[in-house]
Amino acid sequence: MVEVKIKKNAAQKEAMSSDIEYIKETGLRVGEYITAQISETGYMKASHNYSFYIPMWFRDSCFTSMILTEASDFYQNNAFQHKSASLLNFMWKSSEKFLNNIKRGIEIPLEKPNFFDIINHFPARIGEDGWYRGHRGMESDNPFLTSMEHSNWLRQYDSVPLLIGATAEYIKKFGVKDIEGSLQYIKDTLPGMIEYMIKIYKTPCSNLWEMDTDKIHSYDVAAIYYGMNSAMEIVKYIKKDLKNELIEDYDEIKKIKSKDYNSLKSDDKDKIKIFSEKDALCNDEVINSIDLQDIKKKLEEINKFLNDYLIRDGIVYKSKNVFKPDRSGFESEPIKEVDSGQIFILTKFKPPCVTQEVQENTMNKIEKDLFSGNVLPIRFKGDSYFLGGRWPLLGLEAANWYLENGKKENAEKIIDYITDKYLANSNAIPEQEIINPASTYDPADYLSKNNNRPISDLAWSESAYLGSVIKYLRRVSEGVKKIKRKA
Fold it and tell me: Partner of 396 for a Cys bridge, out of 21, 141, 157, 464, CB 3.0 to 4.6 A?
């Protein structure tokens, strides 16, 4: 169990219960708890106390990296930046192991059945060796030996765009400081990732809940839009800002190189190495051949696809089938249901077709169908995983949307609820809570096998809390109404 000392006793917390500083400090404490769970190598288990969540999911870790990047800036905490960078470094190093997967995914025609095999795609999760974590228990698997039928749920299309997006957001804040070791992997992998995203966005995959592998999901299409847009920002940075850094550093590096290498201090040797990696990235022929106008055209195509096939009635719906029920042709109509995971489309991915009106309509339907008067939402109607409980991280993402749309009290209600219920005497936030769940049954008996408790400690839940606290505090100026708290 990872422990971070809770600094205030019960009496002190009671005295601070109406104080905005309490929320700020709680966010900081949760942030420290998150970073304590990230190893120095950059490996982060999805949950440190649930055996099936020992692997590192790209999704969870990318969102955590984004939030730690923000937290470093907000709290002026270098440890948060270091851990954000370590997550990115681990994931980029791992990404090169799957370069051949990406190449095969690009080369194999869509009409070939083996296009959809996991060995031809970037996976959802990895082990401590940075390699594939598949179906056979918790050890690292060889995907060539693993049943494709049992592994295709790992073909999730948000891993690549979220890694690119988290990197772009880090670079906006800190440049390439502390991620210099990833530059060679970015050089080797980014061009293929762009081509891969262009190919896959209108093909079926598992959704972010690792289900419905036969459908095209609005979340994934929008995530790829975000990833392509982020890739464009990284390429712009490489072609301009990083080249300027090389020019600025040139004289110093030239002076260092004029000395005998064996006599150099380790810091000077590191400077030479970093300069060489930056130089290799900036002068890479493939990177420099990336046409930003082509990316813009592809962004327009992806946005049009999302608009044409997944938005109806002013709502962005969760998914569509590839073919019509009678298999007579391509299905043009979405399944008219929503999923709380779509909130990320509104808050993070933001394709242009999801206008303010579409956002409002979509959130209204999510509130009606999935919140149903509760503080937190279920994932989707009919969810039966751990009975289909209510997810704090999804409620917190809704709080982010409320904060962006002038509905501060709605956000306060969610942040306040989670702070009071889970963080008064702990640093942990569960994956879900079993309150008015979506189902009355749990087919795989996940709940009973876990001592009739949901997963009690999820790193993504905790990072979501930290992110919402930062967004809340940034939206609130001194002297405004303080967060309501229970008596």
Answer: 464
Residues 6+ apart with CB under 8 A from 440: 387
- The contacts found for 320-328 with CB under 8 angstroms, 24 or more apart, are 320/215, 320/216, 321/214, 321/215, 321/216, 322/203, 322/204, 322/214, 322/215, 322/216
Tokens 């990230």, residue? 38
C-alpha 405/C-alpha 361 separation (Å) is 13
Question: Using CA atoms, how far apart are residues 382 and 68, in angstroms rounded to an integer?
Answer: 33
Reply yes or no on whether the pLDDT at 486 is more than 60: no
Adjacent-strand bridge partners of 335:
319
Rounded to an integer, what distance in angstroms lies between the CA atom of residue 80 and that of residue 77?
A: 6
Q: Where do runs of H (alpha helix) occur along 376-425?
A: 392-404, 408-422
pLDDT in tens, 321-375: 999 888 888 999 999 999 999 999 999 999 999 999 999 999 999 999 999 999 9
- Which pLDDT tens digit goes with each residue over 425-483? 999 999 999 999 999 999 999 999 999 999 999 999 999 999 999 999 999 853 444 44
**In which element (H, E) is residue 166 found?**
helix 159-174
| Bridge partner list, 6 | none
In 39-108, where do the E strands start and end? 56-57
For the entire predicted model, the pTM comes to 0.92
How far is it, in rounded angstroms, from Cα 449 to Cα 371? 27
C-beta of residue 282 within 8 angstroms of C-beta of residue 242: yes
Q: DSSP assignment, residue 481?
A: P
Give CA–CA dist 216/202, Å, rounded: 7
Q: Tell me how far apart the alpha carbons of residues 300 and 307 are, in angstroms, rounded to a whole number.
A: 10
